Each structure stands twice: as C-alpha cells, then as structure tokens.
Amino acid sequence: MPIHDQGYRHYEGAKARGGAWLVMFRTGVLGMFSNRRWIVLMIASWIQFIVRAVQFYFAANFSQAAIAAPTAQTFRDFFDYQSIFVFLVTVTLGAVSIAEDRRANALQIYLSKPLTRLEYIAGKLSVLMAVILFITWAPAILLLIVEIAFAGNFTFFVHNLYLVPAITVFALIEALMVSMCILALSSLSTNSRFVGILFTALIFFSDAVAGVLRGVTGGTSLSWVAFSNNLAQVGDVIFRVQPRYDMPWAVSLAIVLGLIGASALVLERRIRGVEIVA
User: In terms of residue numbers, what domain contains 262?
Assistant: First the structure.
C-alpha cells in the first residue's frame, strides 16, 4: 500500500487578488434581504417615491395641479425626507458591522485569510453604501424617468440635465460620509448598541449646539458645528438651490471631507489582526 507524503506543499493554484471584498458584499446584502424586518424597512423607504410619482402624474395630466410640477428643489427635498431612512439604516446596520466582529474576536480570523485590511473595510463599507444608495440614489433617478414618462417629453430633463450628476454626486457623498463615520465608531467598541447611541447623540448634540448658537447670534453663520448642516449645505449647492445657511459652502465641504478622512484614519488604526506568537 503506497504511503503518500502529507508534508507541506507550496500552493500552485491561481491566486485571487482584490476581489475578496466582493464575497463580504454579496454575503452581507443577501443576508439583509433574507431578513423580514429589513425588507419592511426597504419597502417603507420607497413610500416617498410613490407619493412623488403620483404628484408628477397629476402635474402632467391636470392643469389644476400644475403647482405640483417638479423642480430642482423637488429632488433636493426628496433627499431631505429620505434622511430618516438613511439614519435608521446607518444606526442599525452600520453600528454592528465591525463592533460585532470585534466582540466575537473575528478580526484575526478575517485578516488571517488572504484578506487585507483595505479589503475588509471595503467589504463592510460597500454593503452599507449599497443599501443607502438603494433608498436615495435609485428612487431619485427613477423619479426622473417617471417624470419623462408622465410628461411625454424631455423638456424638464433637457432643462435640468445637471440633476443626473447632482443626484449621483450628492448621494455618493452622503452615503460615504455617514458610512465612514459609523464604521469608525463601530471599530472603537464591541457593543453595537453603544455605537448606535453614540452616533445618535453626536448628531443630536451637534444640532442642539447649532440651534443655541443660532439663537445667540441671530444668524446661521455658525451652523457648521452640526454635522448634518454641512451635508445639507453641500447638497443645496450641488442641486443649485438657495443655500439654507449663511456660511461658505467650501467650509461645509471641507468639514465633510475632514470627517471622511478622520474616519479613514480611525479605521486604519483600529482594523488590525492579532499577531499570535508561538
């Protein structure tokens, strides 16, 4: 009976590079949409789309409803109203993304595989951003298509061609900022509930401080202290509507980019495998 050598042999197969994060993305998305609660939340997030579509139908077919005709402000307001669902998704999904892996000591398992820190972060980030874009960018773009279908012409679309890049750019900035911030917070703790509470507290506390400063100064020049105000100011400029705050939009953009950069730095420091020395 032959005896086969069971010693170490160098792997000679093909090596997959740069695509490991896709496995995390696919697993995360499929896991979410197999959960009934997430399905209900996703359906609820599209209610505004249905309401807006009905509004566009009446505006296109009844002269009495012309006041409901879409404008650039309509699409800007769409994102404002969707922010509640962005918040819910960010807190519930983002808070557990890394905190649960840290609690279960799974980071060293992930990083002991042919998976880099960048791929691990990309996998977590892609799931969260995909869901946020599904409830912001996707219905907003579909609303443009619905407007063209109901109007029977391309008049509004031609006069507002910038709405396509505006919707895309703002949706990406919003999704990236909130996703990076919650992932950074999630990497700091093993308690996902604490992460969700901390994220919520930071938003509401900064809003409260901005409100107090507005009452004291009688203006909105210091509204940049609130995280959400900076995102809103950048959105107003992107959609070419009147900015809602008396502060330079460049300051708001710098703060948004600063938050993304600071979150990336935190993730770079916190996402590390545990080296086991024999």
Answer: 20-270
